[in-house]
Amino acid sequence: MDNLIRFFQLEAADGLLLFWLKESLIAVIIFASFYLLALVLGHVLVTWGPRFTSFTKTDLDDRILRRVTPPVSLLLMFAGLYFAVASLPLPEKAHVITSGILFVINMIILTIIAYRAADEFLQWYAARMTGVESSGLRQLIPLVEKLISIFLIGTALIITLKHFNYDIWSIITALGIGSLAIGLAAKDTLANMISGFTLMLDRPFHIGDRIQLAGGQIGDVIDIGLRSTKIKTLDNTYLIIPNSELCNTVLINMAFPDVLSKGRINLGVAYGSDISAVKALLVNTALEIPHVRKDPAPEAFFVSFGDSALNVSLFFWVEDYTKVFSVTDQINCLIAKRFQENGVQIPYPTRTVLMEKD
Fold first, then answer.
1. CATH code where residue 307 lies
2. Residue 354 falls within a domain, yes or no?
3. Which residue range or ranges hold the Mechanosensitive ion channel MscS C-terminal domain (predicted)?
4. Rounded to an integer, what distance in angstroms lies between the CA atom of residue 166 and that of residue 286?
5. By the number of CB atoms within 10 A of the CB, which of 12, 233, 251, 312 ranks highest?
6. Full residue range of the structural domain in which residue 302 is found
7. What is the per-residue pLDDT for 158?
8. pLDDT tens, 131-177?
């Protein structure tokens, strides 16, 4: 009887051993298949990938291919290991722990692949931006990278928690309430940041442009940040203006649509002066200044009858708005000289008082 029991025990042990050998062989075949697939795919991506991407006009696909090839091969290997372990008849607790670890590793690798592709695209896009006007957009690149990282990590975390049968809706609800509280506490900062995005994308002005604010201040744009914009005024002082105020106000961009600018000089001549001769003298005087454009040519207009003078305006154009003040000074000095030479008088304000006797 003991020998019979021992015989059945040996038969059961042999059957169990054969079962484990069979399952282990299947797991090895699964892993080996994925391993070979990873090697083949890596070889194809390294050898044949550049040949296919060479047909495109941009090098973006080449750069992304180089960045994602190593983790893609690694992802296939760990995916094969995950399915191989899943096929083994392990105890439930050991199976949950082992497959869970491998699932987390696969999610990490997949997140790295997505981040590398997005990062390569942003670096490629930043390298294509040239000129001063692109400096504001360049400031967005690090912020966009951080937002993409947060999004990818959050997505991977939600998928992982869902895989382990955790209630993700309670976490999403808590995050939503927390975000709402943070948004209410920092509404002014968020408003300025959103306005900064608007200024950088809509670009009503660029760095280096001269603008005039609704309050009358004139200055050059030095920096467009996420919270505020810095403007250097003509008297060499800095204005730091919150972006939300700039988005909700009326301003004049002197550098748009081009840097060509128009100047104006108002003056009065004595009653009795030859207005046609005065207008011709003003135009010829403006043309003597090197920075005044001949096309469009300067123009002079008889504007109105003043209390003690005939009011005349001279309009002229210069190549650059930064030279309007200096050119105005030169024209004024030369007008005073030419008026003196030609006997044109600029009268003082006068008032006649009549005294009547009883």
1. 3.30.70.100
2. no
3. 265-346
4. 80
5. 312
6. 261-342
7. 82
8. 544 555 566 677 678 778 888 888 888 888 887 777 666 666 766 67
Poorest-confidence range of 40-44, 119-123, 159-163, 349-353? 349-353
CA gap 331, 316 in Å, rounded: 10
> Can you give the pLDDT at residue 136?
53
| Residue 25 is assigned to a structural domain of this protein | yes
Instruction: Please tell me the distance from the alpha carbon of residue 118 to that of residue 263, in angstroms, as a whole number.
Output: 49
CATH of the domain at 212: 2.30.30.60
Tokens of 229: 């914009």
Last residue of a domain, one of 150, 182, 214: 182
Per-residue pLDDT reduced to its tens digit, 201-219: 777 888 888 888 888 888 8
Domain count, the chain: 3
Closest CA to 193 of 228, 221, 149, 142: 228
| Residue 101 in domain | yes
* Angstrom distances, CA of residue 242 to CA of 8, 190, 251: 86, 11, 14
Where does residue 331 rank: exposed (0-12), middle (13-18), buried (19+ CB within 10 A)? buried
Residue found under tokens 């109105």: 304
Q: Report the C-alpha gap between 148 and 170 in whole angstroms.
A: 23
Buried b (16+ CB within 10 A) or exposed e, 212-239: ebeeebebbbeebbbebbbbeeeeeeeb
pTM > 0.90: yes or no:
no
Contact (CB, 8 A) for 44 and 64:
no
Predicted confidence (pLDDT) at residue 104 exceeds the cutoff of 80: yes
Count other C-beta atoms under 10 Å from residue 111's C-beta. Answer: 18
Which of 306, 210, 198 lies closest to 256 in space, CA to CA?
Answer: 210
Report pLDDT for 330: 93
Compare 326 and 63 and report the one with higher pLDDT.
326
Q: Distance between CA atoms of 10 and 29, rounded to whole angstroms?
A: 28
Q: Do residues 334 and 285 make contact, with C-beta atoms less than 8 angstroms apart?
A: yes
Instruction: Report the distance separating Cα 242 and Cα 5, nearest Å.
Output: 89
